[in-house]
């Protein structure tokens, strides 16, 4: 069939117009407050790029978006077929967090795109102070046997920033972005003369482990896969990449629940069997199990833990987690724990989990075990993360609380699987971190979520001098500052040796989940002050790094017209803990006079007259 000249001209005009609509077209998305702005466009090279502004100031210049496949590139020669916008405002009850309510308020833009013959979407969300984005790649015939070899997302900063570089359980090294040689883990914290920025990750349940590497431009970071590529075997939603902006260090903590806000929600009600609490690790014998349960009950702990070795050498394939070493009458200990209201958590490492998980889930339920601690899991590869996501769901279905250790870090999945109370992915107290490290953590790793820091508090028999590089007062303070619904206390200590009751009294009172939290003062690596409320009682943790901290702290968070009994647990001149008590009201100015590496923990209880 022949086309007339007129019809040919109409077709050409439509084609050009269609391309003009796509190439050079920009799409804008503002936060609910309108302070945070995202701009997305298809540039002159037909690439999808984005930029971010905060109160009119540019934070990210044009930065790349896309995915590199084996044979094709998603995000090049792109056509934006349509856009969709929506707004969401939710108040979500959450009894396992730093606050009892999560405010989830954002505007969303979804771009439906085609690139290299592949249909995909990019979803953007604008929160007050944060921008999040992810790629959605539906299953398609042309993607059979394809894999994502590289994520093309970049973060091209408009200013010079210092990056607090670290990997998994390492220490932190502040350096200029352009000096980055290694990779840096998520969440990554960056500081300029004007802003504090966190680049984070949320809802990684089927991807691979990604980190940040130096980009091609000055002051630029790019996403890099740590271990493997990503197979496209089904519909894929990549993890969210987030950019959060604050004017000061403590302002970063308004984004510490952002991974929860971006992850699928379990439901409106958390099962009653999911109980947060404190746990003490015990030696692997029956008597210490019984003694440990008595200690836990007397000190308001909720769990005991039998760690590596209770079923034999943990890395030997012959060690069977269905069998118990002769020295430990586990069934007797579990039954005694039930009588005392104390749950028993069992450690199983990757070797035992991979070989026996489906067998031990119903078995441990029959035994009356309360929870698992997973050890040496693979949180670095796509296969490992997919396996782990399925294992978390299985423990939830069977009714076990869960703590995951070693390289695994949170991405908000506790909002999907609330039995996942905590995880490691942090250089904890058993690795003898110094005061600087302790003062960096609240502004870096803890922005991703809960962490099991494993406190090694001294007792009357052992000082753990090689494991404790800060004061006892700081150890107490960090139990408030560091968030974890499951807190491991007295990691190396034998409960029978903790006769220093005055020193450890605060651990008896401090909760592990909170109704309300306020980050009062702080600077990365220098000092921190956090106030948290449970019920009508407030808890306050103050700690410092390598320098003394002198100043004043206003107790403005207290309720007006109420009197509070303030009990201060702090370092004394003999390297012990002293306790002093006074009465205060809202607005009281607390004088801070902490020595380097020191700290203080405080309770504020309402006085009924």
Automatic annotation (TrEMBL):
Alphabetized Gene3D superfamilies for the sequence: 2.70.98.10, Aldolase class I
UniProt entry tagged with the keyword tRNA processing: no
Cofactor(s) annotated in UniProt: Ca(2+)
Molecular function, one GO term: hydrolase activity
Keyword flag rRNA-binding: no
Record's keyword terms, sorted: Calcium, Hydrolase
Binding partners and assembly: Monomer.
UniProt protein name: Glycoside hydrolase family 97 catalytic domain-containing protein
